[in-house]
Amino acid sequence: MPASASLARSGRAAPLAAGVHGVAIDDDVVLLDEGADAYYCLAAAAGLFSTDAGGVVRAVHDEIAPQLQAAGMIGQGDEPRRAPPRLPRRSIDLWAGPFWPGGRAALRLVGAGLAAERDFRLLPLGGLLERARRRRRPAPSPPGRLEAACVAYAALRPWAPFGGACLQRSYMMLIYLRSLGLDADWVIGVRTWPFAAHCWLQAGDVALDDDHERLAAYTPLMVV
């Protein structure tokens, strides 16, 4: 249902709070509350939200607003936020570079890994995302330099003594890229039935640390 039609039926709508993100997937809606570090899947609830063309929730209708207000998910006004990008349409060939990119690249990777482990130990999800937002670079990265840096990172990553799930892995790579004066979109996507969440980096329509065909199973929920 188009957002305009839903709004006309409801007559009123309220924005999501800062740090709360939502996306409609078919008839369902998935919400992420950064502060609570929690996802909520609302089955058959898409008609209670206004969404944009990509399914991202822009407003909550009055039928469900009281429940979300009680949970602290309703904002006082429209919060500025970046729209998630479309899913990437291609991937980088991460194994196209030299086996050993060099000592400087290795030291950068170790520094990024240590910084990521420190931040994940000290900061909640909302703090991690806010730190990444504050350090975002205003200008887009040159594609050639960005892809070369990703290839070098991929060559070194298997030898690095750092673990973590996709959130920490992509955060570590983001720190590495920013140490080179580069940047990327840090995207969180979700799927339903069964529910799953996943994190990746992309620039434009290019996946930087994952296979774009695997990412096709997810719907972008938010971006840093």
TrEMBL record:
Top-level division of the source organism's lineage: Bacteria
Boundaries of every Microcin J25-processing protein McjB C-terminal domain copy: 122-222
Pfam family, one: Transglut_core3
Family matches, as InterPro entries: McjB-like, McjB_C
The protein's name in its UniProt record: Lasso peptide biosynthesis B2 protein
Organism: Caulobacter sp. 602-2
